[in-house]
Write a structure and sequence with these properties.
The structure is a homodimer of 349-residue chains. In chain A, 31% of the residues lie in helices and 23% in strands. With 349 residues, chain A is α+β, with helices and mostly antiparallel strands. Chain A folds into two domains: 142 residues, PurM-like, N-terminal domain (60s Ribosomal Protein L30, Chain: A); 168 residues, Phosphoribosyl-aminoimidazole Synthetase, Chain A, domain 2 (Alpha-Beta Complex), CATH 3.90.650.10. In chain A, the strands form three sheets. Chain A has a seven-stranded mixed sheet, sandwiched between helices. Chain A has a four-stranded mixed sheet with strand order 2-7-5-6, with helices on one face. The relative contact order of chain A is 0.16.
């Protein structure tokens, strides 16, 4: 929970403590809900117009990305659904080489949601949007009957302008390129799973949810067309993303297990739960495939950011086993990394 | 159901007939679902890139709008949730004076949804997008457990470019302006309600769901700054929208009940259900507030469109009872029209 922010943004005085179907009617109750502090909290000169649509000024090429968030539980160690919804779409835009600018925000609320929970989520949204430097410019609120939803689902759709130096495309990948992962993997999935399974660890495992636009855009600024691909391994994890790229581009990928950063505790939890960290979701990690000649420098520049402290070169593009990812295990064996076949952890984001 | 289109777009051969949690995993099953025909059906040069984000070219000022659709039932007389999701966002953009261009499309599916139903919804989305001249450029699919959703929820977020002649703003309203409603009201709400309540009528009452960008943009093209306001009275209906405008702009609005087009059968159903058509949702109607001198001409131009056949001047802005809407009833009495207080018909869109 966003306890820190709540101290600065106490919930307004209201004559209701739960959200009802009427709050989704489009009538007086909807206005009451939005005017209770929602608009004030997220205020900016575009949203303040309160029109059904937002008027934006954009220059240059534009990227658009959408994501719905259905994570369960909505509050988890290291974050909540509100923060996740902002960071997730910000990161999808950053992966396109775009500077995230504007977000829409749409709620589907199950009737009975505590206003205190909704408020905590909103405060978290506000803080995450400020950190990422994006504006929430338009929104929508629907309410469904009890048992027809699950507390709250959030859709964010984002617009960003493409960084003029970005030359990102899977087709730019070539043999000798290096693969870099920006931080330790599998934290988000394990943070969620540990709550669901009631696991306790010596120190709590926290979700890695964070906005990655700052480190990503600095790489583009400094290395331009040396950066060939960026991708955030969320659902499906690192393994699925790499397997996708290998298959789609018909290239061979070699990775080495010992170079992939995984926190000791996360590794332990994965063993306990029978999960392979390669397939566990991340919400604050990206991979980038870069020209081999700049890989070390990219890694060093990333490590300057707290959110990329464990950046590591984990493998390379090879002129062999096209369409496949091969991992060299810690004890020396080699095996194929396939896409996640089904659902490992449902409702992780 | 979109029976007509299904003949042209038969569901592909699949080895599954229901959507499972795995289809939302981001792994192999998600790819299988999307590659089963979803991408082919909605194909365009931007979506085909299959990146997490879409790359767009936009010129001029831009509008953005978002809406989640949770209508129950998902198939209803005259439409379905897919068509509604396209038309709803297209219309929100049109109300901003924008030419709708690009949509994102995000599904939250309850596990167990029949693939045939999903396919019918997709086909309907395709047809609606084609009719409105918009492209679906990016998307997202999440699956939640049975009992944590309700078949399917859809979010669409749209981007459009502002028509260069559009000068739409509530602040342009002035005394003497006329209020025009583009077609008969209350059809959508009553179509939904009649299914839920098992009502039968001599001829079936159909939802009015349709895209309004064509008539709206023609008005802007022809009358430019003579068009002061456009608004689509969806949730909350005509009464709520007018009451909102009167309150926000501190202006007086007079309307006459006899001039408001309502189909006889819809009127009858409203009486039967104890509903006031003024508060029943529409999905293919807009109101416009225009300079008094052009009102008749606006009305005539609208009537050329099938979707605006019943366009009618229903009232005017007066220099009296500021902040209030007063309706003159058929038998001559006058009463205040307030906003819909709570939820009249939940999950109407």
């Amino acid at each position: 929970m966003s306890v820190k922010m709540n101290l600065n943004c106490p919930i307004p005085q209201l004559d209701f403590d739960r959200i009802t179907l009427g709050h989704g009617s489009g009538g007086v109750l909807t206005h009451k809900l939005l005017d209770s502090g929602v608009f004030d909290l997220l205020s900016n000169e575009i949203l303040d117009k309160k029109h059904d649509g937002a008027f934006l000024n954009l220059e240059g090429e534009v990227a658009m990305s959408t994501d719905s968030f259905v994570v369960n539980p909505v509050f988890f160690p290291g974050g909540d659904i509100g923060e996740l919804a902002i960071n997730g779409t910000v990161n999808d835009l950053a992966m396109c080489g775009a500077i995230p600018k504007y977000l829409s925000l749409a709620f589907i609320i199950e009737e009975g949601l505590l206003m205190q929970d909704f408020w905590n989520i909103l405060v978290s949204i506000k803080a995450a949007a400020e950190r990422a430097g994006v504006k929430v410019v338009t929104g929508d609120t629907k309410v469904v009957e009890r048992g027809k939803g699950d507390q709250i689902f959030i859709n964010t759709t984002g617009i960003g302008t493409i960084h003029p130096k970005a030359k990102i495309s899977d087709t730019h990948i070539k043999t000798g390129d290096k693969i870099i992962v920006s931080n330790s993997i599998a934290n988000h999935g394990i943070a969620i799973m540990s709550v669901r399974e009631g696991l306790e660890f010596e120190t709590e495992i926290l979700s890695d949810t964070c906005a990655l636009n700052e480190p990503v855009l600095q790489l583009i600024e400094n290395f331009a067309d040396g950066i060939h691909v960026m991708r955030d391994p969320t659902r499906g994890g690192l393994g699925t993303v790499l397997a996708e790229i290998a298959k789609d581009q018909k290239i061979g990928i070699d990775i080495a297990q010992t170079t992939i950063p995984v926190e000791e505790q996360v590794n332990g939890a994965c063993e306990l739960l029978g999960l392979d960290p390669l397939y566990v979701a991340n919400e604050g990690v990206f991979i980038t495939i870069v020209d081999g000649s700049i890989a070390n420098e990219v890694c060093e520049q990333l490590k300057v950011f707290d959110t990329c402290a464990k950046a590591s070169i984990i493998g390379e593009i090879v002129d062999d086993h096209k369409g496949q990812v091969i991992i060299q295990s810690a004890i020396g064996g080699r095996r194929v990394v396939n896409m996640l076949p089904g659902e490992q952890l449902p409702r992780i984001c």
